[in-house]
């Protein structure tokens, strides 16, 4: 990890000092930031005297939401981001300093190739930083209709006799439309005398 603390003015701030040819992305975190800045990649001119480096806007991912932002989109809040520097150095073009100062921590990432605007941190089955499975335990409650009609074999136990609803199990899987295994299910009732057999 590298840092650039206490930035107090607008301007251009070069961050990465690792070899640009091996750095495909740069992860950076803003602390105390309330202004506006645009991530850019810095293209050096090979040390030619009197020739200034070139700066180009670069896209980035907000790791908190997994949202990809196109080049030129300003960052206006604290957070952790990954910029697609594509073999160049990362620079921050601070256009508004906000409350007066902020700090930056950053990590050059080698061997991580962005593709199609995604750097692998958005919700998908291809993700980074998780080892092993997740075994959540979820529950949902059903209240049957307040009547005395007796059940017969093959009846469904639902919350309505006319318009039953499907029971949702929130947070049962890691991502929406993903894959998972149900390893165990259990029915509980507050009717102590119930000895019927149920099928899920």
Secondary-structure class: mainly beta
Q: Got a strand count? A: 10
Unreliable spans are: none
Order of helices and strands: EEEEEEEEEE
Q: Given this structure, which CATH class of the domain at 2-110 is correct?
A: Mainly Beta
Largest sheet entry = 6 strands, antiparallel
Number of helices: 0
Described by the principal axes of the CA atoms, the overall outline is elongated
Strand line-up across the major sheet: 1-10-3-8-6-7
Helix-residue proportion: under 10%
Using only C-alpha atoms, the radius of gyration works out to 27 Å
**Gap between N and C termini, in Å?**
51 Å
CATH architecture call of the domain at 2-110: Sandwich
Estimated share of beta-strand residues: 25-35%
The CATH topology of the domain at 2-110 is Jelly Rolls
Overall pLDDT, averaged?
Answer: 82
Can you walk me through this structure?
This protein is mainly beta. About 0% of the residues lie in helices and about 30% in strands. The protein has a six-stranded antiparallel sheet with strand order 1-10-3-8-6-7, with no helix packed on it. It is elongated, with a radius of gyration of 27 Å. The two termini are about 50 Å apart. The relative contact order is 0.21.
Brief write-up:
The chain has strands at residues 2-7, 11-14, 23-31, 36-43, 54-57, 60-62, 67-69, 79-84, 89-96, 102-110. It is mainly beta and 200 residues long. It has a domain at 2-110: Jelly Rolls, CATH 2.60.120.
């Amino acid at each position: 990890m590298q840092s650039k603390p206490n930035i107090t003015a607008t301007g251009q701030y070069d961050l990465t000092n690792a070899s640009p040819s091996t750095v495909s992305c740069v992860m950076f975190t803003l602390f105390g930031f309330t202004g506006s800045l645009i991530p850019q990649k810095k293209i050096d001119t090979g040390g030619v005297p009197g020739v200034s480096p070139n700066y180009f806007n670069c896209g980035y991912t907000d790791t908190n939401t997994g949202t990809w932002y196109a080049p030129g989109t300003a960052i206006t809040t604290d957070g952790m981001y990954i910029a697609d520097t594509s073999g160049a150095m990362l620079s921050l073009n601070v256009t508004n300093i906000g409350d007066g100062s902020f700090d930056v921590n950053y990590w050059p990432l080698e061997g991580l190739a962005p593709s199609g605007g995604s750097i692998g941190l958005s919700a998908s089955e291809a993700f980074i930083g998780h080892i092993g499975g997740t075994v959540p335990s979820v529950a949902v409650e059903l209240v049957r209709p307040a009547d005395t009609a007796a059940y017969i074999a093959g009846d469904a136990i639902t919350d309505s006799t006319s318009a039953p609803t499907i029971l949702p199990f929130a947070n049962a899987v890691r991502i929406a439309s993903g894959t998972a295994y149900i390893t165990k299910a259990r029915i509980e009732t507050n009717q102590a005398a119930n000895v019927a057999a149920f099928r899920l």
